[in-house]
Amino acid sequence: MEEILIISNYYPPEKGAASNRIEQLALKLCQNNYKVSVICPLGNYPKGELFDEYKGKFFVTENRDHIIVKRLWIYPSISKNSAVRIFSVLSFATSLFFYLVFKKTPHKIVIQSPPLLLSFISIFVLKLKNKKIILNISDLWPLAAVELKALKENSISHKLSLFLERFIYKKASIIIGQSNEIITHVKSLFPEKICYLYRNFPNHTLAHLNLTTEINQPIKIFYAGLLGIAQNVYEMCQKIDLNALNIELHIFGDGAEKSQIETLIDSKKQKNIFFHPMMNRNDLHEKLKSFDIAIVPLKVRIYGSVPSKIFEYGALGFPILYFGGGEGERIVEENNLGWIAAVGNYTELNEILKSISKLNKQELDLMKKRNFERAKKVFNLDNQMNVLIKKNVF
């Protein structure tokens, strides 16, 4: 059985798209007769503190669904103090560096990027050991950071990030990117680089639509995921107008904007918005069975980014209300998955909400059935993985 190692900054029981994406990759490789191991930090995300089962520990080895997960020490933090955040990143980077230097690793290694620093350290060490490095790019950093105004263009940090980015792209043996825009960007820097598209398709195995439509209830729209700067859910809650509409908005998640969203809802300034804590994936899917529409927002159009929620909830059958621009917008439109509002245009978003409010539940039920059948054909993780394995990517 061939061995393969995955290096990632996130892995379950941590929540969010990043940890789900890497777990799905690990599980799918395992199902295709690879012996899979994962290196990641001690579980802490998104709260920025170690989960109870990891407190007081420096190294933990687990077996999760036949995948060996090796968790290294980290000083976790989501502090607004940049010095504390940098120390947190460096803590895991240091643990990872010494592990890769002194421990035996398989020949084939998948490295998740971003974060750039962890990718850089991994590739720097592993290239010296002549490993086959498969770089899995889910977002284009530092480009996305500049677009989100989290990083000032031409600053020292920006220039350092550009150096790290070019180094990891150049040294990787193969690159897999979650969007066509990512592939285009890499090719613009290194035209000869071997690149493949690897969408963040979910590993759902549902044979039949598992959603119910409650006829005499309001239309339930939900957002489920991280509540951070990129998603901008707090501003969306402030600016949408649900007054007099037959719509409820339900927020499931955790992150930097959580307290602001809870305060807004408690103030009663916005009606028909409800907050729920983050749940594990299976419990969330069970809870969402009676909901109607998934909303997928982004603060700005981020080049290279395609929110995995499009695939995750499209595959369950949910119509998608997309509010993020870019390649994600084209995917929703081309597959007729729902509605599109121009990113940042709350006037257009509110007009779409008015039109959705006028739909009857039978129309929504038909949309769910159509989306479910479409997604089974188009968002197929098994087909995608089989193609990449045949091409000797892994």
Given helix and strand content, the structural type is alpha/beta
Number of strands: 14
Radius of gyration: 21 Å
Q: Which range does the strand content fall in?
A: 15-25%
Mean pLDDT: 93
Unreliable residue stretches:
none
Strand line-up across the major sheet: 3-4-2-1-5-6-7-8
What does this structure look like?
Helices cover 41% and strands 20% of the residues. It contains 14 helices and 14 strands. The chain has an eight-stranded mixed β-sheet with strand order 3-4-2-1-5-6-7-8, with helices on both faces. The protein has a six-stranded parallel β-sheet with strand order 11-10-9-12-13-14, with helices on both faces. Helix 10 (309-316) crosses helix 13 (361-378).
Outline of the structure:
The protein is an alpha/beta fold. The protein has helices at 17-31, 82-102, 116-128, 143-147, 156-171, 180-189, 233-239, 258-266, 281-287, 309-316, 326-334, 346-357, 361-378, 381-390, and strands at residues 2-7, 34-41, 59-64, 67-72, 108-113, 132-137, 174-177, 195-197, 219-226, 247-254, 273-277, 293-297, 320-323, 338-340.
